[in-house]
Write a structure and sequence with these properties.
Shape of chain A: globular
Radius of gyration of chain A: 22 Å
Largest sheet of chain A: 6 strands, mixed
Number of domains of chain B: 2
Strand order of the largest sheet of chain A: 6-7-8-3-9-10
Order of helices and strands of chain B: HHHHHEEHHHHHH
Distance between the termini of chain A: 60 Å
Largest sheet of chain B: 2 strands, antiparallel
Oligomer: heterodimer
Number of domains of chain A: 2
Order of helices and strands of chain A: EEEHEEHEHHHHEHEHEEHHHH
Helix content of chain A: 40-55%
Strand content of chain A: 15-25%
Helix content of chain B: 55-70%
CATH superfamily of the largest domain in chain A: P-loop containing nucleotide triphosphate hydrolases
Number of helices of chain A: 12
Shape of chain B: flat
CATH topology of the largest domain in chain A: Rossmann fold
Number of helices of chain B: 11
Largest interface: A-B, 22 and 17 residues
Structural class of chain A: alpha/beta
Structural class of chain B: mainly alpha
Strand content of chain B: under 5%
Chain lengths: ~290, ~260
């Protein structure tokens, strides 16, 4: 088990204390792609900030490779290097004069050698699909929103984290930007074998990418499992006002009408094929029947 | 953390102090501050402190909160005390160690100055604790109005103050978020010497300024698209009106001020 959360409670000590997490137990294996869904205020953002030690739990322990990250023996800086966190609207954290310098901020804080930093900046830019030579000397503030977002993400990737957490990384991106980011996430997960935790409100994205889905509501994990399992619980999701992925919704409704389709496909193309084959089978069945 | 900072720490309430006209409150505060600088006996200070306590009790303000407001000036108070203790000369020598020497006059003026600073902060915090930021700016706007004749843009100044107060919590929240984002990239805001710490603030301040400017820009556009125009022709929803109690309280305060200044 890479990361383990043991009975975590987190309370924000304001004038009226707010219970953000109320007894969360969770284990995360290396190589998983976890989709985290839930409403605003359900505790998702608090949960991910606990994972790299930005917040300390009010109760409970967080173990990284079996060690409590909030104990004395663990260096928090080391945890933050290994567990990369991309916040919402990460482009708001850009500050350097050039793209290359901004991406180098993380590696520099990790006290890496000059050449290694340089190499990582190249790699990170390459990963997010931006050309090193043409972007390195440009000011991050003169780029488009989508490019800024990718540079901010590159800034986290340059740390070569083993776990990458993204808090609604697609918010405010245009369809092309969103598609590119999805491809990047898939690439990081499949080819580089990064463990990824993705918070998103777009069920389609979660359904297509995640190997496991966690549903949070009022500080608790109320549902978890493979996407097909979780999205099978339409009633429970409806109870907390969460939608099914559009594709699943359509397939389920078709099934209710009597078309024999599987409901555990999430990509639009797969769903199209599934419906087509089901229709074909049905018509074959009808044709073979003597009138 | 940053969120501990409390500015505009208004505590809503319905006491007579809360309901007073903000203009009168501002004027009384100014008057009392002036008087504070004329008082030159400890009895005077004691009476002043008594007055502060009576006001605190009538306004039902938590004493703890008021004392917490004194924390930021703690350093200033200690510094003042020490400077006076060691540097003010006159009277008998009380204590001496090599070149360090404390004399009677030093002790007196030291404690004098400290009482003055503490009372000053306490009295002004009564104003900010019992008056909402909005009322406060309204009051200031009214009081500055006569100066408009000399070209002072009172309305605009008040609007700027209101906006500034409104955005303090927003910016604090933003700063907290950026700080976390940079920490996630290994930034260290908490260790190192003064120069290293100042340098460490760059990754926080640059994005903060950029976002402040962006917000200002958006706000200006939003205000203009709702037809905001400055200038003297603006009317307001809630006009401030002096009540008879306001006048009585002002006269009472003035009387007390004069009385205290005699001690």
């Amino acid at each position: 088990m890479l990361i383990e959360l043991e009975n975590i409670r987190h309370i924000y000590q304001l004038d009226d204390p707010v219970v953000a997490l109320d007894g969360v137990d969770l284990g995360i294996e290396r190589g998983e792609f976890i989709g985290l869904i839930g409403h605003t205020g359900s505790g998702k953002s608090t949960l991910v900030q606990l994972l790299n030690g930005l917040l300390k739990p009010s109760e409970g322990r967080i173990l990284f490779e079996g060690k409590d990250i909030n104990s004395q023996e663990v260096e928090l800086k080391e945890i933050r290097r290994r567990v990369g966190l991309v916040f919402q609207y990460p482009e708001h954290q850009l500050f350097e004069e050039t793209v290359a310098k901004d991406i180098a901020f993380g590696p520099k804080n990790a006290d890496l050698a000059e050449e290694e930093i340089d190499k990582r900046v190249r790699e990170a830019l390459d990963l997010v699909g931006l050309d090193f030579e043409s972007f390195k000397d440009r000011s991050p503030f003169n780029l488009s929103g989508g490019q800024q977002r990718r540079i901010a993400i590159a800034g986290v990737l340059a740390l070569k984290p083993e776990v990458l957490i993204l808090d609604e990384p697609m918010a405010g991106l245009d369809p092309a930007g969103r598609r590119k980011l999805l491809e990047l996430l898939r690439h990081l997960h499949r080819d580089i074998e990064m463990t990824i935790i993705l918070i998103s409100h777009r069920m389609e994205e979660i359904a297509r990418l995640a190997s496991r889905v966690l549903v949070m509501d009022r500080g608790k994990i109320i549902l978890e499992g493979r996407p097909a399992e979780v999205f099978n619980e339409r009633e429970r999701l409806k109870d907390i006002d969460l939608d099914l992925p559009v594709v699943t919704d359509i397939l389920k409704k078709l099934k209710e009408k009597g078309l024999k389709v599987r409901t555990d496909v999430f990509a639009l193309e797969d769903a199209r094929d599934e419906i087509l084959t089901a229709l074909e089978k049905q018509s074959q069945f009808r044709e073979s029947r003597p009138c | 953390m940053l969120t501990d900072i409390t500015i505009g720490q208004h505590i809503p309430g319905s006491s007579i102090i809360h309901r007073m006209d903000p203009r009168v409150k501002i004027l009384i505060t100014l008057l009392m501050i002036t008087i504070l600088f004329f008082i030159d006996t400890f009895i005077g200070y004691f009476l002043f402190l008594l007055l502060v306590v009576i006001i605190l009790l009538t306004a039902k303000l938590p004493i703890k909160r008021v004392l917490r407001g004194l924390k930021p000036v703690f350093f200033l108070v200690i510094l003042t005390l020490f400077l006076h203790l060691f540097l003010t000369r006159g009277g008998e020598v009380i204590w001496q160690w090599r070149f360090l020497r404390i004399e009677e006059a030093g002790v007196f003026t030291g404690f004098f100055m400290v009482s003055r600073i503490l009372l000053l902060i306490m009295f002004t915090s009564i104003l900010t604790l019992t008056t909402s930021p909005l009322e406060l700016t309204d009051g200031i706007e009214y009081l500055l109005k006569p100066l408009a004749r000399f070209g002072l843009p009172a309305g605009e100044l008040a609007m700027m103050m209101t906006i500034a107060l409104r955005f303090i919590p927003t910016l604090l929240e933003e700063a907290d978020k950026i700080m976390k984002a940079q920490k996630a990239r290994g930034a260290d805001f908490e260790s190192g010497n003064i120069i290293q710490r100042a340098k460490a603030l760059v990754p926080l301040l640059v994005p903060l300024f950029i976002s402040a400017f962006r917000r200002a820009d958006e706000l200006a556009l939003a205000m203009e698209s709702r037809c905001y125009r400055g200038g003297t022709s603006r009317t307001r929803l809630h006009e401030l009106k002096l009540k008879s109690t306001d006048i009585y309280l002002f006269l009472l305060a003035a009387g007390l001020a004069v009385a205290i200044s005699f001690f």
